């Protein structure tokens, strides 16, 4: 059927229970995709989650019904803070219960299986010891009924809905061994101990259950990072109403509410400090181990932990608009994304089980024709069925992706999706915006030279028209004016000229502040004194701007922005990886060269207008380079989007999360090579996992079909294939950025 239009599509996330392998996920994904009104559906086996993009006429409950009809259970994942926290706690409780139940079954199964294994062990040492067929039946039957029930249930649900999964293979294999043994004990005229496979069916189920238990624990471990982020979501706040402090639910807060955060409390939502100061622990969001000092006017982020001081905060974002909610969405989205290779794996998984059943039947028929020995034929075909379970295939990519993006998020590196990982792996050129990336981004006013020698008047005028501006130079001017206790006047008719400066009306006069290009555009009369000052300041590596009243220049201001301490180390690290480094800035040639020399970039481009950054990116791409653009995520949004990989540094603002493939939560240049490193490490793990997942089957199935693999060994190999894949992915949790303080 044709996919419906996505113009008005909505997205819902569903928590799925009942999936046992990649085949289940693939079948459910196809079922959802075929549902009328569904634009796109992605089912993640490792995360036990479905993300469905659908048209408004399709309700979330309708999708839950579709999942139920397909033989699984679903529950909508809510985004509101309180609902999300409650749903998270319910998922945790369900996971704990599932883990506990699986372990109890495994313990029971092990106790019953041990006596069945003892004769096999003794035989290896030359000791002949056999249990009677009836006793073997008594020990194996509870395992077949109670442990096997979970596989029978899954197999029946899959077959009833026209599919086949791992449960079908396990059920067929163990049932064949068990029923063949029952026949020989109770109905065959004469049966030898070698004709009994009770120990095979019992041990296979026990080993697979052990694998499932280890898999559950490992899967929860790989997703620990995003679970810890969700756990940070506060549900209450202390709201100030009049002269009272009233505890309220987060859902009852409104923008602009005044709240107090007491020492040691979790910050309930994003806001600005209006009173008080403290040190906040932001490590869970940024990876920064040291507490960050916060004072009046500073931004606080929901989910961080307050230190020893009480702070009074005005709320600026709520619910899904908060920084924490955006981070959770981004990390979950990355973990749910699919690699192109995974799509091929899904196609293989969809046809895998029927093919294996045919191979098993062919194996049975082949051995019967070759030897006429039913026992050998049953053993070989059961081994084929058991070893071929496709769990490892379904876990290979998502577990590595979950672990890698989780480890990155813990370090303050947010990776949007698998495509961003792949692009990061191929980057050979990194383009840096200068201000706020390689430099601190907080220029300091070093010189204020008024032509009439009234420097305070010059500074008052210049700072006044910058009130409300977000530009770094504006902040420097206002700070300098406040230090001199100058009284500022709010301007009118403010107009920013990108890459040049600003024009405004102040007390009835037009005031402009900007570079030489702006002064020429406004026909401001040049002066020898002004031109000389600008050249003098720029030759010393400073940024110089002219201030004009109407068409008359009244003075020159000079600023300096320091290079970040770790910028040179970060650039050298990138160079060692063979990556070309380029800095672009709107500053003059001399100011740009000053910073470029300090940090050691390969080359730089000066006097680049904001819209020109796009052109630089595109020019490099046309030359065949794989370009990553590093910027602050606000002014550089178009260039971030145009690059092969956009890296937004130190903002976490909406536009950064929307345009950048990677967002760094700290303004730390050394996180740039770290982001490339975790990307390469994650892709390496994905390839390793897929290799191991396929190699088990490629080697194991022929060996089983040739009778060289007993059903018990096949069961152990099958269980260990899943465990090894997930354990290999878990190693990524130990990843930490190199050379980070």
TrEMBL record:
Record protein name field: Cu+-exporting ATPase
Localization of this protein: Cell membrane; Endomembrane system
Primary localisation category: membrane
A Pfam family of this chain: HMA
Organism from which the protein derives: Pseudovibrio ascidiaceicola
InterPro entries listed in its UniProt record: ATPase_P-typ_cyto_dom_N, ATPase_P-typ_P_site, ATPase_P-typ_TM_dom_sf, ATPase_P-typ_transduc_dom_A_sf, ATPase_P-type_domA, HAD-like_sf, HAD_sf, Heavy-metal-associated_CS
Domain of life: Bacteria
Keywords tagged on the record: ATP-binding, Cell membrane, Membrane, Metal-binding, Nucleotide-binding, Translocase, Transmembrane, Transmembrane helix
Record lineage: Bacteria, Pseudomonadati, Pseudomonadota, Alphaproteobacteria, Hyphomicrobiales
Ranges of residues in domain HMA: 10-75
Gene3D superfamilies referenced in this protein's UniProt entry, alphabetically: 3.30.70.100, Calcium-transporting ATPase, cytoplasmic domain N (3.40.1110.10), Calcium-transporting ATPase, cytoplasmic transduction domain A (2.70.150.10), HAD superfamily/HAD-like (3.40.50.1000)
Membrane topology, record value: Multi-pass membrane protein
PANTHER family, per database record: ATP7, ISOFORM B (PTHR43520), P-TYPE CU(+) TRANSPORTER (PTHR43520:SF8)
Sequence similarity: Belongs to the cation transport ATPase (P-type) (TC 3.A.3) family. Type IB subfamily.
Residues spanning the membrane: 105-127, 133-152, 164-190, 196-214, 348-370, 376-396, 689-706, 712-732
